[in-house]
Write a structure and sequence with these properties.
This protein has helices at about 25-35, 50-55, 100-110, 135-160, and strands at about 10-15, 40-45, 60-70, 80, 120-125. The protein is an alpha/beta fold. The chain has a single domain (about 10-160), classed as HybD-like (Rossmann fold), CATH 3.40.50. The chain has a 5-stranded mixed β-sheet with strand order 2-1-3-5-4, with helices on one face. Helix 1 (about 25-35) packs parallel to helix 4. The longest helix has 22 residues, at about 135-160.
Length: about 160
């Protein structure tokens, strides 16, 4: 971090439902990151209701949202969307149990000009969204990759990159 500057307020939001199999991946990644990044970022586990997301990221300098998605890619594929420069494909982020979810929250924030300086959405392609606990093997294998990618992104932001 450059001398004389205050650290950015970094918020990580892990979205999911712990009782819908792969839908829990955002929560699992957030739990891992909470222990690793607690000194530089606030990490929260949330259900993904869109208006609550807008409220949570108000005042944050940088936000990372992590959620399970269904876009037709191979299960476990990690997608990264820079929400400041591109819309989030609503069809991809359709695993939400809310009618107003991540893609809609990003679109509304853009319309209202209530974006943090940085807003990145990581989606991990799910396979199984049926009731139950535990990730499918493909999604479970991708958790470490996603943790590493988010860790690196937060480290770069914190250092002013």
């Amino acid at each position: 971090m450059p001398p004389g500057t205050s650290p950015p307020r970094i918020l990580i939001l892990g979205i999911g439902n712990a009782y819908r199999s792969d839908d829990a991946v955002g929560l699992i990644v957030a739990r891992r990151l909470r222990h690793e990044l607690s000194d530089v970022a606030e990490v929260r586990e949330v259900s993904g209701e869109g208006t609550a997301l807008l409220e949570l990221w108000t005042g944050a300098d940088a936000v990372i949202v992590i959620d399970a998605i269904q876009s037709g890619s191979a299960p476990g594929t990690v997608h990264r969307f820079d929400a400041r420069s591109q819309p989030i494909p609503a069809a991809s982020v359709r695993s939400s149990t809310h009618a107003f979810g991540v893609a809609e929250a990003v679109a509304l924030a853009r319309t209202l000009q209530q974006f943090p300086s940085r807003l990145v959405v990581y989606g991990i392609e799910g396979k199984n969204f049926a009731p139950g606990v535990g990730l499918s093997p493909e999604v479970d294998r991708s958790v470490e990759e996603l943790v590493a990618r988010v860790r690196q992104e937060v480290t770069n932001w914190y250092r002013g990159g």
